[in-house]
Amino acid sequence: MKSKFCLVLNADLESSDETVLLEKNYQNVFKPLLSFLYSHKDFFLTIGFSGPQLSHYEKKHPESIELLHELSSKRQIEIIGGGYYSPIFPLLLPMDRSGQIEKMNSLVRSTIGKRPCGMTLFGSIWDSCLVSTFQSCGMEYVFLDSSLVPKKHLKCCPLIASEQGRSIKIFPSYKNLIPLENESCQEWTSRIKTFASKIRPEQFPFSDEFFEPVLSLCFSFEQFGSFMKSQCFASVSENSEDVSFTTPYLYLKKSKCFSPAYIPAGMDSEISKWSLIPFEQVENKTGFPPTIQDYLNLYLQNKRLYERMVYISMLVSQCKGGDKVRKTASSEMLWKAQDGTNYLSPSFGVPSPAEKRQKAFRALNEAERLIREAAKIFRESLTSFDCNGDGLNEYICQMEKYNAVVSLQGGQISELNFIKSGANYAASLSRIEKFDSGTDFYNRGFFSDHLIETEKFEKYLAEKTIENCIFSNSQFSEKKLESKRKEIQLEGNGLFSSMKLPVKLRKNFTFSSSGITVQYILKNESPIELNAFFAVELNFSQTRFDKKFEMESQYSTEAILNETRLLLPDSFYADEGVSIIQVKDSADKRIFVIEPNEDSGLSCAMIAFKRPVDSLEPKVTSSTYKVALFWNINLSAGMEKEKTINLSVMPLKNNISVK
């Protein structure tokens, strides 16, 4: 009996937001494929598109749409759907799941002429709760990576998964059966038969009249381009005696037997390898499949993007009435931010670089601006709730021009989003020794605080690892919350130096339309004198990645040092005498003015972060501009010291030179 295959060409996800890459892959892969399909009537193929990819073909290559329409009408190809912006479905609210699927279905129907009956999932990221949404959107089947399926259910046939009275068919996809680059047709078919003989039981529980074994292979655009150039493709496409092809529609029309199975939450095996140790590939030997939530818990900035996305999604869903045009535009920006490639690379499995995340933050900020305008009612507010699911409240400050999130972990601002034309300035990474020649044992945000021993302060200035910085990695507690006055009072405690001297830091945030004021009260609770350096960091994350900023920094700094105005280099140090610092963001046209109530020391440094992107070889993916104000503190037993820092923000065009 011939081996029957359902070949799937997945959406061109990695190129879907880059017109140049979409066009390149069209010319190199899709155009030759259409010519081949038109001349080989017995070759059947299933094709999946992302919304931006199919829209690009419709606009730039209408001839390809006409050909797809013709091939589809002959049942030689089947077009499957999914989310318009290829989202990670388990992360979305049900309203967004169905909205993205319906938007994609409408596009396929208007271009190809037939509504999709099946779909693929970004990274095969699955959860059983999706069954209800998929069925309500008219989906009859879904392709999932075979690594998610328990081995006892791998029987060369579709599965059927049920949840709360609804069901969907599942085609396991075997990436290990994709033809190798130099593999002959005979070698490939022999490998398939060997594999099939191992997973198919001798006595199959279905009647041959209604059952025919089938194997599904899902190709990326790059994989299918290589496959078409191989000797194996040339052989199997010419009516091979050992191989035949089908589509899900044609197969399901004949086969009526499916294997009931429960598929636990999980994701593609290549992604799972990056879910155990940060930025390292590790085989999962625990017996429990990692989930997308495990993945996000491992990568802090990706999780913060997810939290921001859910927050905006709730704002959009709760907006009743108002301007429908703006609400629709807000939903569109939200869905763009939900693109799965903003979280991880589907081909390699690593977290997406900062460039992708910041692009998503911009879309979410624009979505919030539009939904505020749609609602026509906005009140500045300060609220607290557990938005990241760690059991501790975060403080969400919604101002007219910006949003800020204050975390009890480190008592710092972990997100700073500007509503109009802005990204997240607090989305800085922390260094990892393996990639960055140093390790940060704290999260880099705005107003991250350190109490450092005098003998270790030189190491801090040289950006070397300091393992026991007090307060920056401490858990603060809430002492007071004044929502009407936009004030938060936090308190943190720690033991200083090897002598374990108890110290306390009270930290008061006050938010206004022009900026943020933070008051510090440091108390020595030990019976002996305390000598240390107290440093406050503001870490400005890279938010723009245009070619212009590959050669020069996004940020430039001026300061008043001993009553003299100076233009500072990227790396700068002054031990005292700094009264005003002005950080200019030339990309988003903003000025950040930092004013301590007492002259301080200043340390500025540009810190680059290397991470794996498309291989194990790390590359510089982002940078952070660190501005640290510091003071030499001498406190007698039981005494306190007060410091205040004011951060104000203004448009670049209104920049007034410091004097």
UniProtKB/TrEMBL annotation:
Domain Glycoside hydrolase family 57 N-terminal: from-to ranges: 27-177
BP GO terms, sorted: carbohydrate metabolic process
Source superkingdom: Bacteria
GO MF term set: carbohydrate binding; hydrolase activity
Name of a matching Pfam family: Glyco_hydro_57
Domain Alpha-amylase/4-alpha-glucanotransferase C-terminal intervals: 439-566
Similarity comment: Belongs to the glycosyl hydrolase 57 family.
Annotated PANTHER family: ALPHA-AMYLASE-RELATED, ALPHA-AMYLASE-RELATED-RELATED
Protein name according to UniProt: Glycoside hydrolase family 57
Organism: Treponema succinifaciens (strain ATCC 33096 / DSM 2489 / 6091)
Lineage of origin: Bacteria, Pseudomonadati, Spirochaetota, Spirochaetia, Spirochaetales
